[in-house]
Amino acid sequence: MRLVPDYRSEFFEKMLGKGDLLANYSRSVFKKTGRKEVTHAVWQENVGHFQINHWFNLRPHPSFGSPLDGSTTIYEIVANDFDLASQKRVMESWIWGEPGNGDHP
């Protein structure tokens, strides 16, 4: 979880939002079956001024904090200066690699 930068309560008190789902799928499964089997995915959702990032089968980017995996009873909330556009760029590069390298599904 992280705090959204420049929090102003009038913008977020009643906000509930879902971010983009970014995913990779198995091309070999797609070629054999025509079905896209997701191998990795990231997405986020906002509840008020908190943001929850979900990482499926992919270790989280360190800028977004440690995973809530039950290994400890205390977790820290991470604050960073990402706006939504820069957050999306970080997540895209984390799951697909650097832009323009042909790794996008």
Tell me what the structure shows.
It comes from Bradyrhizobium diazoefficiens (strain JCM 10833 / BCRC 13528 / IAM 13628 / NBRC 14792 / USDA 110). This is Blr0164 protein. The protein has one domain. Residues 100-105 have low confidence and may be disordered. It has helices spanning 9-12, 27-33, 84-96, and strands spanning 2-3, 16-18, 22-25, 38-47, 50-56, 78-79. A hairpin with a 2-residue loop joins strand 4 (38-47) and strand 5. It is built from 3 helices and 6 strands. 23% of the residues lie in helices and 27% in strands. It starts with a strand and ends in a 9-residue tail after the last helix.
Order of helices and strands: EHEEHEEEH
Strand content range: 25-35%
Rough outline = globular
Number of helices: 3
User: Domains counted in the coordinates: how many?
Assistant: 1
User: How big is the Rg?
Assistant: 16 Å
| Quantity of strands, as a count | 6
Low-confidence stretches: 100-105
Largest sheet: 6 strands, mixed
User: Based on helices, strands and strand pairing, what is the structural class?
Assistant: alpha+beta
**How many angstroms separate the termini?**
27 Å
Helix content: 10-25%
Which descriptors would you attach to this protein?
single chain; 105 residues; alpha+beta; six-stranded mixed beta sheet; 6 strands; disordered C terminus; Blr0164 protein
Can you summarize this structure?
With 105 residues, the protein is an alpha+beta fold. The protein is 23% helix and 27% strand. The protein has helices at 9-12, 27-33, 84-96; strands at residues 2-3, 16-18, 22-25, 38-47, 50-56, 78-79.
